[in-house]
């Protein structure tokens, strides 16, 4: 698998995302997966809030999340089936403002894939909208796929045999988040100015329709639930 990021000019609020991508990625190989940071997708939607007061910022986090838990440096929140920090709002590289997450990353990915397949004249193309997250008890960020299109996001090994003939009961591979992590590793998190990454020869199964809920685990089935005590109560 090959992953290469693309150096770009600065993407601004309400810029044309497709024009931006096709300008900086002149060619795509059939069977590629294009990773796009959620920040520029949100900027294309105009999802930017001018620097608010601390109280206003907390109100934004409440409005953008379904559940929240106060932690040492902010809030752990639940949004669209994902646990994330402060509902995913981003203040880095935002010129003093706050950038929200895209409204519907799966729809964004699907539309981008349709437009880009036509532009590049490709049969097989995947698109993944990436963000970064912190794993419990681990330093540094890794990638997460907020939305994707064109490939199956989960590989299921349950019921299959391992090398010694033992049937596996729980193992599944999260393809979408793995691709997002690989992309983010090359994109960087600082002033690299590389919001796009091209992934070639990835071991994915391409498809026209994806199940946007295939990676979501119900809170009552999550092995980490005892740490968070997530309930079905509405946010405060």
Can you tell me about this structure?
- The protein has a five-stranded mixed sheet.
- The protein has helices spanning 17-24, 38-45, 54-64, 105-120, 175-187, 225-228; strands spanning 2-6, 32-37, 48-49, 67-70, 75-79, 82-85, 98-99, 125-134, 141-149, 154-156, 172-174, 196-200.
- It has a domain at 2-45 and 102-217: 60s Ribosomal Protein L30, Chain: A, CATH 3.30.1330.100.
- The mean pLDDT is 92.
- It is of the alpha+beta class.
- One of its GO terms (molecular function) is coenzyme F420-0:L-glutamate ligase activity.
- It comes from Candidatus Kaiserbacteria bacterium RIFCSPHIGHO2_01_FULL_54_36b.
- It holds the Pfam family F420_ligase.
- This is Coenzyme F420:L-glutamate ligase-like domain-containing protein.
């Amino acid at each position: 698998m090959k992953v290469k990021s693309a150096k770009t000019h600065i993407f601004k609020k309400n810029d044309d995302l497709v024009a931006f991508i096709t300008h900086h990625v002149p060619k795509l190989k059939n069977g590629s997966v294009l990773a796009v940071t959620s920040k520029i997708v949100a900027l294309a939607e105009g999802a930017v809030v001018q620097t608010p007061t601390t109280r206003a910022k907390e109100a934004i986090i409440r409005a953008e999340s379904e559940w929240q838990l106060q932690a040492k440096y902010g809030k752990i929140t639940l949004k669209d089936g994902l646990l994330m920090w402060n509902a995913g709002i981003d203040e880095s590289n935002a010129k003093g403002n706050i950038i929200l997450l895209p409204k519907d990353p799966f729809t964004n990915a699907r539309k981008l894939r349709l437009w880009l397949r036509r532009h590049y004249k490709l049969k097989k193309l995947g698109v993944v909208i990436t963000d970064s997250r912190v794993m419990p008890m681990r330093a540094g960020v890794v990638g997460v796929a907020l939305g994707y299109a064109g490939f199956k996001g989960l590989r299921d090994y349950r019921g299959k045999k391992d090398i010694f003939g033992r049937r596996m009961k729980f193992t599944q591979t999260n393809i979408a988040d793995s691709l997002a992590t690989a992309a983010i590793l090359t994109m960087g998190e600082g002033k690299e100015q590389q919001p796009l990454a091209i992934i070639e020869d990835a071991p994915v199964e391409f498809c026209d329709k994806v199940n946007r809920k295939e990676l979501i685990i119900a809170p009552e089935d999550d092995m980490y639930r005892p740490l968070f005590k997530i309930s079905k109560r509405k946010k405060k």
